[in-house]
């Protein structure tokens, strides 16, 4: 490993020196993101809460996926659609597992 690579590795490692700070950022991010699909059930009417939650969650997933592309240098549309697809698959799996254990919705 030459000097330049060693310097880059130290710079990358320095970003992760404080595990408590990293944990706090992850926790806050998770709590904010988790509020998106839950919020409509507190503020909307019962009949409109589910469609609103699905719409807001889909939009948020797309924005998160598209924003990720600023760092990964991929196309923003592909990144947004990929994140929506992953979220939809996670919802389907969650619904299937809930159904398997007899958990009813609605």
Task: Supply database-style keywords.
elongated, mainly alpha, 0% strand, 106 residues
Describe the model.
The protein is mainly α and 106 residues long. Helices cover 83% and strands 0% of the residues. The chain is built from 5 helices and no strands. It is elongated and about 60 Å long.
Mean pLDDT: 87
Question: CA-to-CA gap between the ends?
Answer: 59 Å
Uncertain stretches: none
* Structural classification: mainly alpha
Residue fraction in strands: under 5%
How many DSSP E strands? Answer: 0
Could you estimate the helical fraction of the residues in percent? over 70%
| Quaternary | single chain
Brief sketch in words of this structure:
The chain has 106 residues and is mainly alpha-helical. The chain has helices spanning 3-14, 19-38, 40-43, 46-72, 76-100.
